[in-house]
Automatic annotation (TrEMBL):
<feature type="domain" description="ABC transporter">
    <location>
        <begin position="326"/>
        <end position="488"/>
    </location>
</feature>
<keyword id="KW-0547">Nucleotide-binding</keyword>
<keyword id="KW-0997">Cell inner membrane</keyword>
<keyword id="KW-1003">Cell membrane</keyword>
<dbReference type="InterPro" id="IPR027417">
    <property type="entry name" value="P-loop_NTPase"/>
</dbReference>
<feature type="transmembrane region" description="Helical">
    <location>
        <begin position="236"/>
        <end position="258"/>
    </location>
</feature>
<dbReference type="InterPro" id="IPR036640">
    <property type="entry name" value="ABC1_TM_sf"/>
</dbReference>
<keyword id="KW-0472">Membrane</keyword>
<feature type="transmembrane region" description="Helical">
    <location>
        <begin position="21"/>
        <end position="42"/>
    </location>
</feature>
<feature type="transmembrane region" description="Helical">
    <location>
        <begin position="264"/>
        <end position="287"/>
    </location>
</feature>
<dbReference type="Pfam" id="PF00005">
    <property type="entry name" value="ABC_tran"/>
</dbReference>
<feature type="transmembrane region" description="Helical">
    <location>
        <begin position="153"/>
        <end position="174"/>
    </location>
</feature>
<keyword id="KW-0812">Transmembrane</keyword>
<comment type="similarity">
    <text>Belongs to the ABC transporter superfamily. Siderophore-Fe(3+) uptake transporter (SIUT) (TC 3.A.1.21) family.</text>
</comment>
<dbReference type="InterPro" id="IPR003439">
    <property type="entry name" value="ABC_transporter-like_ATP-bd"/>
</dbReference>
<keyword id="KW-1133">Transmembrane helix</keyword>
<dbReference type="GO" id="GO:0005524">
    <property type="term" value="F:ATP binding"/>
</dbReference>
Length: 497
């Protein structure tokens, strides 16, 4: 399951690395199993008539250990590459999924899940492959390999090792599945509620915020206890299976030795085999909890990456660097239960031009930017990019939005055809936007007459309608709403206590 999730996320490009990682880990396990078997002739020679005959076997043992070390190192290198392949896929799909969220979803459960997944999955991906995948493969393969090699020595022991390995693998699979299911059911904290409770000043003021926080923490503690209730029996099952396997293996070795079918030296070597089986299967029991969490994390990453790839196939969107011409016809938008915030807007934004949108408070400026950028779906009318209807996904891909509080280097660097700047008050930002003239189509919201004087056209909104359009000089000379607003802003700026 883990392998198929990793394969689905890293795709055909990561196939070579995945095969090399699994192949080298299995090779290292094979070398380790054969080095355990080499101990039998080493011990026989050491306790035999001519101890010096042990040298060639010791040489073989050293060679096997050196080869194991080399194989482990190479496997870790390929494991890292697989892990980084996972990170690449998450870093591509995560932001794309976040971009696709509507404004109303930003505080919702899906946004919280995405945020948590991005925060945890990136650092855990490499760990999941290298620190969990390797020991897991090793632990699962070592016992069957030892069983195979024990066949010419004592078929009864081979049978016990094989049955024991299968029982351990079955127990690990069952407990991991149960733990992953428990984690999905009980592992989520109600993040949006927590955020809401912390960040809304009004809720903090009337104590409903702290109350909601306490309720979330209480529910989270209940979930942790449920999770623990699943984890403890899982460990118990694994260690019980391990003890049974060890007891049966020890009993069969003793019986073979006492009945004279196995020499004392071979029986002593079996102690080493036993030790390796304990080590490998013990690792399995320790791995079961982190494995369950990695399994559920990978399943979520796979769902996210597959959904984003499907979306990309449905709407293959490229982000051309050239500026796009935008035409709005009869654009309408109404918040639920409110009068329209945009009420039939007709507007031309020529490619490469800079347009300033101005208007009084609540006139619809921010809503217009949100509809243009694809964060909100219009209730009526059309948005054309370069003469073609632009759906939400295309608008999001081809638009960069700069808010006053967001670092501009992120935003201005995006090769988007349409750049939207909300509250263009920072003179440096305005100067940078000016330098972009011709390379991006820019729409900015501002209340600074100095900025208005530099743009190609000024659009004045009032109650969701365009009431004036023209250059700043034309509108100023006309003495309409813009002239009125500009005078008020200037007075407000010169206001002094
Ligand atoms: N999330 C919302 N839910 C309901 N109504 C909203 C919401 N956001 C804005 N409105 C309403 O839509 C109208 C347009 O608001 P908008 O924020 O677009 O105006 P604005 O010109 O950007 O205002 P300001 O300059 O004060 O930011 C206003 O009547 C406002 O009250």
């Amino acid at each position: 399951m883990i392998y198929s999730d990793i394969a689905a996320v890293t795709g055909p490009a990561g196939r070579r690395d995945r095969i090399a990682f699994v192949g080298l880990t299995l090779l290292s396990t094979l070398l380790q199993a054969s080095s355990v078997m080499t101990l039998i002739p080493v011990l026989h020679a050491l306790f035999g008539a001519e101890p010096t005959q042990a040298w060639p076997w010791v040489g073989l043992l050293v060679g096997q250990l050196a080869a194991t070390w080399l194989a482990d190192n190479a496997a870790a290198r390929f494991g890292l590459r697989v892990g980084f392949g996972l990170i690449d896929a998450i870093e591509t799909a995560g932001p794309a999924a976040i971009r696709r969220l509507g404004v109303d979803e930003l505080a919702g459960t899906r946004a919280a899940r995405l945020r948590e997944l991005l925060a945890t999955a990136v650092p855990e991906s490499v760990t999941a492959v290298v620190l969990l995948g390797s020991p897991l493969l090793h632990a699962l393969a070592l016992t069957p390999l030892l069983a195979l090699m024990l066949l010419p020595i004592a078929w009864q022991l081979s049978l016990v090792a094989l049955a024991g390995g299968l029982a351990m693998a079955g127990a690990v699979a069952a407990t991991s599945r149960a733990l992953a299911a428990a984690e999905t059911a009980f592992g989520d904290v109600d993040d949006p509620v927590l955020d809401f409770a912390w960040t809304r000043p009004a809720r903090r003021g009337d104590q409903s915020g702290p109350r909601a926080t306490a309720a979330v923490v209480k529910a989270s503690r209940r979930r942790s206890l449920h999770l623990l209730a699943w984890q403890l029996p899982s460990h118990l099952v694994l260690s019980s299976v391990l003890i049974v396997v060890l007891l049966v293996f020890g009993a069969v070795v003793s019986w073979l030795y006492l009945s004279g079918s196995m020499s004392g030296v071979t029986a002593a070597a079996m102690a080493v085999v036993l030790f390796r089986v304990v080590e490998a299967t013990g690792a399995l029991s320790l791995l079961s909890a982190p494995l369950a969490s990695a399994t559920s994390m990978l399943a979520q990453v796979r769902a996210l990456v597959e959904a984003e790839r499907a979306e990309a196939v449905v709407a293959p969107v490229t982000a051309p660097e050239r500026p796009c011409a935008v035409t709005l016809s009869q654009l309408r938008f109404a918040y639920p239960g409110r009068t329209p915030a945009l009420d039939g807007i007709d507007l031309e934004l020529p490619a490469g031009s800079i347009t300033a949108v101005v208007g009084g408070s609540g006139s619809g400026k921010s809503t217009l930017l949100e509809v243009l950028s694809g964060l909100r779906r219009q209730s009526g009318g059309t948005v054309l990019f370069d003469g073609e209807p632009a759906l939400l996904a295309e608008r999001r891909a081809r638009t960069a939005v700069a808010f006053a509080e967001i670092g501009r280097d992120r935003v201005l660097g995006k090769p988007a055809g349409l750049l939207l700047v909300d509250d263009a008050a920072d003179p440096e930002l305005v100067a940078e936007v000016g330098r972009l003239r011709g390379t991006r189509t820019v729409v900015l919201v501002t209340r600074r007459p100095a900025v208005l004087a530099t743009v190609d056209q000024v659009v004045v909104l009032d109650a969701g309608r365009v009431v004036e359009t023209g250059t700043f000089a034309e509108l100023w000379a006309r003495g309409g709403l813009l002239a009125d607003l500009a005078q008020r802003w200037e007075q407000a700026e010169n206001w002094q206590l």
